[in-house]
Amino acid sequence: MRLTRYFLPVLKENPAEAQIASHRLMLRAGMIRQASAGIYSWLPLGFKVLSRLEQIVHEEQQRAGHIPLLMPTLQPADLWQESGRYNAYGPEMLRIRDRHERDMLYGPTNEEMITDIFRSAVSSYKELPLTLYHIQWKFRDEVRPRFGVMRGREFLMKDGYNFDLTMEDALHAYNRHLVSYLRTYERMGLQAFPMRADTGPIGGDYSHEFLVLAPTGESEVFYDSDATGLRFGDRDIDFTDRAALQQVYDDWTAIYARTDETHDEAVYAERVPEERRRTARAIEVGQIFYFGTKYSEPMKALVVNEQGERVPVHMGSHGIGVSRLVGALIEANHDDRGIIWPEGVTPFHVGIANLKQGDGAADAACDALYAGLKARGLDPLYDDRSERAGAKFATLDLIGLPWRITVGPRGLANGVVELTSRRTGESEEMSPEAAIDRVAQIYAKV
RNA sequence: CGGGCUAUAGCGCAGUCUGGUAGCGCGUUCGACUGGGGGUCGAAAGGUCGUGAGUUCGAAUCUCGCUAGCCCGACCA
Q1: Residue A174: is its pLDDT beyond 60?
Q2: Quick one: A7-339 is in which CATH superfamily?
């Protein structure tokens, strides 16, 4: 993409309403624009990152054997009356009435709807196990939205629901989600820890939250410093291998890591040596639940088992806050000049800064670089504005592309361009061809 | 939902106390000089001062209502 043909409304000054880094930087980098409290338009750059996160989530869910579908944002109230949550949910649920005076709601989650879909189509244990998920906008009418997309009212969430015959099967689904989530966050360049969690208004008795350490996080967490050494890495997991998944679950949950909601001083003191105890703030970016027959019983989601008995299915629900992750990524990856995207989620792979727009040699070199990068399947952003070097560097630093190729008459006289890492600031001079190779190499691993 | 605050040009703000018909910086447009970290000079465009009523000869400014937004707390993916 050529910057002069893109839509990137960056701000030089900080908007007054933005208190935390991610909110401030998303506004300044032209990623989002507020439409109303806690409701945002996603401008092209933000939309690109959001779409990239969606893509990673889709890939990892399907790798785990989960099936995508798409349910509506607006739901009929009667489903929620059936589960008993229509009255239980409170004013956070946005209630709407249509022209026929029918009570509707903008879905804050989809347990009822998915259970309705399931029960109308599945009646035998032979069709289990089944895990369905979607990535869809949700609405929770927060009293006090804040921190940009980190705590909006409208938010994009991946929510998945497993249907199993037995608790053992459902716990295997639980482990599948735990492992697929670990993979998902690592691909995004984030280290997220599973922490034992309260089950909250959704209910149930088996739950972990995934938290990313960040000073602006809303949760206080207590953990063993050994947890920060955990890496999922490139392990190629067979998601049907129960023992292997259980092992990952055991490895990751053995180390003490809890939020303030479930923190237990006595257990903490007993299991974690004093010098390894850590307290920090963290952002919640996902949560998994096993809740058994909480919805399948009242909503009659029954299947016939091998003995010919009709039994309620065991369910769980599993969420990843996709739009919130954009904020979390920035909280975990920025400096005073702007965002620093991990390679796995960057909106463009590399920025090209032409330091003398209109100069024949510089223009030609940039055009060749741009074409060469595209030919290698890369997505470059070419800053072809008639701006001075400082302005181009500032813009590219702000929007956080992890790599920049700087092209100027001075280097071109020696046949070189400069490849600079946004994260370390280190640069290296090399031929344009070598720069293309290097960037291609970097992204081959992502 | 309790407490506090704000609303003036795309963004950040001054002007409000003491009423007299709106200003600064950034950004934008045009021209020139520039060209390796938001450059310089010159010209220009852009505002029903959130909204409704009231007071007044006259309201961004005073009074009352309404709306929207922000901060702290409680709540929350």
Answers
A1: yes
A2: Bira Bifunctional Protein; Domain 2 (3.30.930.10)
